[in-house]
């Protein structure tokens, strides 16, 4: 797996290109990188899972015909367990294939051969739509300091509110995670309990899905409200919510 942009600017959409054809992968990755995207690559589902477990991307560009797992299954997993944008890139052009792609969770569907400039613009626009929440900062451009007020979990609206009252809408998985962690704030919840609660398999892949969900949620909320969301990792145990929270 090659990282083609060793020093990406923070404003660059981060893309994982998943393609098992080495020549096509390198060609597309080089072109997308030249169009202003921070591109890393994977040649299999396993490489993709390893990569996003370490650091979720903004967009996954996914080939369907991979050697180790069906691309539609990967798409369904990504849609159920992450908030990353998903573009399917495949040689399959039938309407039924397109419908299956969108049903599996794809945001966009491109048929090979593709002009990488068009693909780059589509990825950039998709990343922009997925990251429209404004950052809240003080007059010096830094994140605001923590507040003494509690966080608020609004069950009716599936949202969490920062101590300053800024709301962030949650997906179903995100909401279930926050509920599980906030039953007893300050007490670690075992990883196996979280896996079962969130309907993840108790496997390496399921554990990676949980870690990716936590990482993405932290980034999403911090970007939206300007302060860190207090989910803490407890080594060899699981996660805990380390701040006061009120549930509505």
TrEMBL record:
Domain OmpR/PhoB-type: residue ranges: 143-243
PROSITE patterns referenced in this protein's UniProt entry, alphabetically: OMPR_PHOB (PS51755), RESPONSE_REGULATORY (PS50110)
Origin superkingdom: Bacteria
In Pfam terms, one family for this protein is: Trans_reg_C
What Gene Ontology molecular-function terms does this entry list? phosphorelay response regulator activity; transcription cis-regulatory region binding
Going by the UniProt record, its keywords in alphabetical order are: DNA-binding, Phosphoprotein, Transcription, Transcription regulation, Two-component regulatory system
Domain Response regulatory residues, every copy: 14-127
DNA-binding interval(s): 143-243
User: Where does the record place the modification 4-aspartylphosphate?
Assistant: 63
Q: Which GO terms describe its cellular component?
A: cytosol; protein-DNA complex
InterPro entries assigned:
CheY-like_superfamily, OmpR/PhoB-type_DNA-bd, Sig_transdc_resp-reg_C-effctor, Sig_transdc_resp-reg_receiver, WalR-like, WH-like_DNA-bd_sf
Record keyword Transcription regulation present? yes
Q: Which Gene3D superfamilies match?
A: 3.40.50.2300, Winged helix-like DNA-binding domain superfamily/Winged helix DNA-binding domain
Picking any one GO biological process from the record gives: regulation of DNA-templated transcription
The signal peptide, as residue positions, is: none
State what protein this is by name: DNA-binding response OmpR family regulator
